[in-house]
Amino acid sequence: MKTRKYFIFAGLLCALMACKKQETMLFEGEERVSFFIGEYDVDSTSYTFAFDPVTKERDTLYLKMRIQGRKHNRPRTIKIQPGVGTTAVLGQDFLLPEVVLPADSVTVNYPLILINTPKMETQALRIVAEVAASDDFLPGGTGQAIGGTKAINSYKIWVSNKPERPVYWDDVESDFGPFSATRIRFMISVLGVSDFSYDTIGAYGTFTYPVILRNALVKYEAANGPLIDEFGQRVTF
Amino acid sequence: MKGNRFLIYTIGYLRIGLIALLMQGCSSFEQDFSRSPIGDINILMDKSEYDVVQLEKLNIPVTINIPPGKTGRYAYRWKALTNDAVYILSDKKDLDTIIDLPPQQYNIQYTVTDLDNGLEFNKHLFLTVNGAFYEGWLVSHNLGGKGKLAFIRADNAVFPDPVGQANNLSFPENLKASFYNQVSYQVKYASIASFTGTEIFRFDPNTFKLTGKSEEVFMSPNGYGGLAWDGGLGRVDQYFINNGEVHVGMGDFYPNEILKPYTPGLGGDYNLFPAVISSSLYNTFFYDNKYKRFMVAPAFARALAVATNGSNTTLNIFNMSNVGKTMIAAEKGRVSSNSSVFYCVMEDNDGRYVMGINNLDPILYQKVTDSQCPDFSKAKLFTASGLFQHMYYAVDNKIYLYNIVANSAELLYSFPSSQLITDIEIKRKTSRTLAVSTWDGTSGNFNLFDISDLGQFVDGAPKKVFGNLGYIIHTSNK
Lengths: 237, 478
Hints:
The structure holds 2 protein chains of 2 kinds. Chain A has helices spanning 2-18, 169-176, 181-191, 198-224, and strands at residues 32-37, 44-48, 58-68, 76-82, 94-95, 99-101, 107-115, 125-132, 138-139, 143-144, 150-152, 154-160. Chain A is α+β, with helices and mostly antiparallel strands. Chain A is elongated and about 110 Å long. In chain B, the strands form 10 sheets. In chain B, strands 2-9-8-5-6 form a 5-stranded mixed sheet, with no helix packed on it. Chain B has a 4-stranded antiparallel sheet with strand order 12-11-10-35, with no helix packed on it. In chain B, a hairpin with a 2-residue loop joins strand 24 (340-348) and strand 25 (351-358). The longest helix of chain B is centred in the first third of the chain and has 24 residues, at 2-25. Chain B is elongated, with a radius of gyration of 34 Å. The model of chain B has no long low-confidence stretch (mean pLDDT 92). The A-B interface holds A 2, 5-6, 8-9, 12, 16, 202-204, 207-208, 210-212, 214-215, 218 and B 4, 7-8, 10-11, 14, 18, 219, 248, 250, 253-254, 257, 260-261, 263-267, 300, 302-303.
């Protein structure tokens, strides 16, 4: 009987002790920022001025960035610096402007400005964009992040003005023929577009563009003779 | 003993405490279930399902029973709903409007909004819209240098100017032709196109509303003439012949692209006769009147090649790559699930011939003489039956029936000598009606003949004649 009372007593005490206020975990630490990429994306890309239908003096590449920490109701500054391995010259070949993360924002597209310089016609330059410490942020932690994305603190860009074989060319070679700089320059001049990937031009483009190119080539050849590419091959569509 | 008492008291206090907490938790919740009338109304209609022919007026009177004491300040809204669209039909109490919705079934939502309290009362019903232009003849005719497209429906209802009515549009010059074009099983992307010498006008086949012009339909053609338009038998591609060139449009594999502009002319050294010879599922033939040979476009291809005979060498009745004759006409005959028969009227210095192609192979080659087939050498207008091995041809005011197997022809009908036949076309769907257009110098007639089991005209006369038309330049089925 006595034992039972002890058990009841202990049980009631436990029940009362279990009732306590739940504490919400809040982030504590330095404010940080990093680049982020998709789960299957790589931490580098290449860019060439050679495929622009109209020659550009500069272009902007946007890199996705995300903070690690709390939102604030004031704008905050993000800085990027050239990292180890950069062969392009800051201020000549590219610019890394200081950008402001707007108040109450979590993500921002960082504008990396590429400048079309003569040396890019002969060599591809490497830019390593690296998150730098600013008054508001430290470089973020890296690795797997929310939603399957990855956080990284440096992103590599190969920039040139050489018409290099696009990675998608295998997919469209049966429609447009073997890659050559001469061929793609002719395609760009006729069609006014520079991205011939299936994702961009779709089935309609793969069926229709070759006819437009073939007809344009007939006119070109009538005026100039055969179009011969840098490999000595006659361009046909 | 002392400890035992302490324990008993403590448990007692804890019990009292728990009971107190429970009693505190059990507070009464004041709820008010009293109800005041909100002015429910009762919406009454004659039926819950309605049928209407597109472009005709639909009247649905509504009776609304308003509760006593209400003043009745209401707003009304009639909406037609499909899975992917909402159409506002009217904001009047009774529906009394011309229905110009695309033909299909709709859910109709009738909403009455009480303006005093914002409450909405809904009534649902079903509406089936049947196309006004569901089946019939497209008649392109010209008068005074201006073209007009008439639609003569299967039930003989005449729409003299559906294009003008739907778009407040008149063709600025004579018409060359009008076609109904549909990739099989892709009715959603069907269209009607009318051509003048310089322009194309594309219309929605259900409403005749303009859906495109010029380069929205074809890439940079330089004027229009010598027109033919049809899909390949396998529905993979669509072909349009214009001034000896062929343009290709997307087909069944990419339905969303069907209405995108056709390619420019494929280019090449040829001059195509205006006929799309879709005799095979995955090879479509054309005829080059420059080098007198057949050309072929395999499915998905965007270039023509010289055709060769199919693999069945026993059928090498003629050499498709070297015919050596000029094509005068090419008409579709019987169609099966995987092939079509085409009859081609050819000509050389020795006279005229009829050649047949089925699938990939020649199947027929015979010389046709005027002694067996009167006026055949002068005929320019031909059409073929899809039921029998028959062709019809017209010369001046006469229509002949050409029996392909017997290689002989008979006169079927003569219009008065003042009537010149300007076009003939068989109704492909049944091959039981022949449309014959005539012109007497001032006005045109559109004559429909019923065809008997022997291929002859029932009662030896037109079953129906539609007058007051201009010079009929082209007719086609929809």
